[in-house]
Amino acid sequence: MSFMKQYAVFSVSNFATFYIVSIIETMKPSPYTIHYDNLRAWLKQQRENSGLSLRAASAMMGRHHSVLGKMEQDRRKIELSEFIEYCEVIGADPHEGMDVMINSLKTSKLV
């Protein structure tokens, strides 16, 4: 009975019942979140150092500015291919970005 208290149950038809899962449960933080935060901060800093606005960088990538904004704000996953393309657009070395991630991971294991 406690299951029914946690989720809303809706009957769609005589044949199907579905459950609405709490957004909080589906958006559990990853243990790697802090490392991605470091990478996101590096990406944003590199873009700002290049003198490009978010809109200018997104136009050069052929993407909507909200896609890159969400990447920088931890509202969208950073895909590796997009990361490399983004680095090329803003004139940043993707290897340096990977070093940021690797160093963050190594540092956390030492603590």
Structure overview:
Helix 3 runs antiparallel to helix 7, helix 4 (54-61) crosses helix 5 (65-72) and helix 4 packs across helix 6. The protein has one domain: lambda repressor-like DNA-binding domains (434 Repressor (Amino-terminal Domain), Orthogonal Bundle). A hairpin with a 5-residue loop joins strand 1 (8-11) and strand 2. The protein is built from 7 helices and 2 strands. Mean pLDDT is 80; it is low at 1-5 and 16-25. It is globular. The chain starts with a helix and ends with a helix. It is mainly alpha-helical. A two-stranded antiparallel sheet has the order 1-2. The longest helix has 18 residues, at 33-50.
Give the gist of this structure.
This is XRE family transcriptional regulator. The chain is 64% helix and 7% strand.
List the defining traits of the structure above.
434 Repressor (Amino-terminal Domain), transmembrane, disordered N terminus, mainly alpha, globular, two-stranded antiparallel sheet, 111 residues, transmembrane helix, 7 helices
